[in-house]
Specification:
The chain is built from 13 helices and nine strands. It is α/β, with parallel strands linked by helices. It starts with a helix and ends in a 5-residue tail after the last helix.
């Protein structure tokens, strides 16, 4: 989807929990677009003080408010010809959202303290860790703005719902941090891989990256072991509720296959119930069943 939409100028809304990699997706969209040689301006709506965000976004004229000693361009003007990322769009003050909506609709905006219209051309990318429609119902996000910014919505699943990515990401971070710190750490013990698989990763990819960095720094051998990690419930449980034991010599794929197989048996082949128990969507479960050639 990222590849398909990057070349267009469609507004993009990226939705996902904190740490899932929303900014990386925004980067991929901008740097694979026809605007890649222009600026990519990033604004964290949650980080800017409420009283300053309008001035920061739209700019102001000299004397527009106390302390405005000179004209200021604003971040929207800086993004002209390029892309603008509004991170945590649901945190934007409600009273400012109509002004942003107008700028998106008319491609014209006004600096604070000015009645002179300024034309602007930018590609808008937004992100949020809120469920957008819940933010609309809660009165945090205007419904008309939501529909304007979400021409294309990209939902980034949490790491716990894409366990097949853990090994790929862990290997990538291991290589990067081994090179960065000049360590000869080549891989993970089977127990360490099982521990990574069993952890829920509430901080998602960002938490995994930090865990691997720490493990590389602490490792005293050529492989990372469980003792090098630091997160809760690192050791796989001796017995789970369904009696499933994770042998230390199993690979992540073998563990995943066994978990899915036993869950399907426990639900007597009911895929909807199995998907709910595993915390994944049914299409993802179907692809796993096909991947592992499970008999259901």
């Amino acid at each position: 989807m990222i590849e398909a939409v990057a070349k267009s100028d469609a507004n993009i809304l990226i939705v996902g929990e904190s740490g899932t990699g929303k900014e990386l997706i925004a980067n991929a969209i901008h740097y694979n677009s026809h605007r890649s040689k222009a600026k990519f301006v990033k604004v964290n709506c949650a980080a800017l003080p409420k009283e300053l965000i309008e001035s920061e976004l739209f700019g102001h004229t000299k004397g527009a408010f106390t302390g405005a000693a000179r004209d200021k361009e604003g971040l929207i003007a800086s993004a002209n010809g390029g892309s603008l990322l509004l991170d945590e769009i649901a945190e934007m003050p409600l009273e400012l959202q109509p002004k942003l909506l107008r700028a998106l609709q008319e491609r014209v905006y006004y600096r604070l303290g000015s009645e002179q219209p300024i034309e602007v051309d930018f590609r808008l990318i937004c992100s949020t860790n809120h469920t957008p429609l819940e933010a609309v119902r809660a009165g945090q996000l205007r419904e008309d703005l939501y529909y304007r910014v979400s021409t294309i919505t990209i939902e980034v699943p949490p790491l716990r719902e894409r366990a097949e990515d853990i090994q790929l990401l862990a290997d990538h971070f291991l290589k990067a941090f081994s090179e960065k710190y000049g360590k000869q750490v080549q891989g993970f013990s089977q127990a360490a891989r099982a521990a990574m698989y069993n952890h829920q990763w509430p901080g998602n990819v960002r938490e995994l990256e930090s865990a691997i960095e720490r493990a590389v720094l602490l490792s005293k051998s050529d492989s990372v072991d469980t003792s090098d990690f630091q997160f809760s419930a690192i050791e796989p449980p001796a017995h789970s509720d369904n009696g499933f034991v994770v042998p230390a010599n199993m690979t992540l794929e073998e563990i995943e296959r066994e978990v899915i197989d036993q869950t399907l048996k426990r639900t007597k082949g009911n895929k909807q119930a199995a998907a709910k128990a595993l915390g994944i969507y049914r299409p993802r479960l179907y692809s796993k069943i096909q991947k592992y050639n499970l008999n259901v």
